Amino acid sequence: MPMIVDLHNHAERSRNTDLRLEDYVQEARRLRVAVAITEHNRLYDRGGVVNGVLVLPGIEILNDYGDFLVFGAPEDCVAYREIFALIDYVHRCGGAIIAAHPFAGYGVCRAVDPGTADQIIARVDAVEVLNGRASADDCEKARRLAMAHGKPGVGGSDAHHGGEMFRMGTRFERRIESVSDLVREIRLGRCEAIRVGGREI
Question: What is the pTM of this model?
Answer without folding.
Answer: 0.95
